[in-house]
Design a protein that fits this description.
It contains 16 helices and 21 strands. By secondary structure, it is of the alpha/beta class. The strands form six sheets. A seven-stranded mixed beta sheet has the order 14-17-18-13-12-19-20, sandwiched between helices. β10, α10 and β11 form a beta-alpha-beta unit.
Amino acid sequence: MSAAAESTTPVSPWHARAAALKIEGRAFIDGKYVDAASGETFECRSPIDGRLLARVAAGDAPDIERAVAAARRAFDAGGWSRLAPAKRKRVLIKLAELIRKNREELALLETLDMGKPIADSLASDVPGSAQCIAWYGEAIDKIYDEVAPTDRAVLGMVTREPCGVVAAIVPWNYPLLMACWKLGPALAAGNSVVLKPSEKSPLTAIRLGQLAVEAGLPPGVLNVVPGFGQTAGQSLALHMDVDVVAFTGSTRTGKRMLEFSGQSNMKRVWLECGGKSPNIVLADVGDLEKAATAAAWGIFGNQGEVCSAGSRLLVHESIKDRFLEKVVAVGRTLQPGDPLSEQTQLGALVDDIQLKTVMRYIDSGRSEGAKLVLGGSQVRKETGGSYVEPTVFDAVAPGMKIAREEIFGPVLATFTFKDVADAVRIANDTSYGLGAGLWTSNLTTAHRVARELRAGSVWINCYDSGDMTMPFGGYKQSGNGRDKSLHALEKYMELKATWIDLG
């Protein structure tokens, strides 16, 4: 690009805000920011252009020990755990207000740290996080205990109590939102929490700790310890004084969480471990354009770094060519751009490691014989960032790596089927079971197929839709337990049966 062209290229005001942003990188333990006990830090670099954002405290076992001890002291003191639900509600609603008040700072941190478009951070991630915290705040004083239908000479009561200390270990793709999906119900129920964000995107979680204290959460109720999985994460999962682990991440690491539970105190473990979700388009699909647009966004949105991404597109043979052309046409319009521009729809992958992983899968698709019909290349190399263009494969066979393994990038694998039974068979032929989409104009078919699909969420004539009222989680190796909805509270509460003899 010539110097003249560069001088006329509009520069987003978010670049100036990014340059002026003061970023906190220390751990947040017992109500204050602290360095790691070792003094060690790690570099947090932006996938947008490789710039150094901050040096972040490299939490390890001693820091986890401090955080868990603070969480236990706060829990036992009862300032939060025994606080009336209506009073916890007020604090959580205040926290939601502070998230909204600091919306632009949090959105900028999220985009710089993870690479997603600033428009997405502003419109979805930060507001969704605030909504989650407020929703559970509003819900908690509407959860009733029970009186059992016993003999009149007996009083049987079923009461709900907070579990204790919750370890929340969250991923890098939706750093703030995934943290709030855990924090909302865990805090509303009265627990103390140690939050371990991904080392790839820890910045909004670190900032959230301070906002929680400003909202009125007692010191020690929320602690944030950044660090690596094999150090901070493993120490947290093995800790004998942690009562619950709530984890979102890879299936491989989720299995390790179950092992750590068995090796320690049999703490309960709730897992959300991703998927390889099918998006099925039947021949009687009502609106081809709508379905194609949804299929494209279902895999390319958030750069494909979505656990429930519709990464397997199953299309009836009679409409496959026509439908795929429309998906590809949408994909051509979704080229990665500057994440700090509000016009950008696709941003950067989270880091160079993930970029190389995605490119290996693309190379695998080529070498195993799938037909590349769109993309397949790294782009914007001159920026120093991690960008991959939307990629679509056709003629994918069930045994190929791109058909079976979670890529976590903007890569779509397309299959053809002959009838509904064939589509269901292909859809369920996976070790995962997080989500599934179905496009049909036949209501009977929709109901029947939804029941046959082995997935925690099934979207009919839409993809990856929902709100806080609906539970989210998976079957099979996509995990157990549910985030969102009132059902999420069940993960963070103990049921106590009290039997009183009145005779």
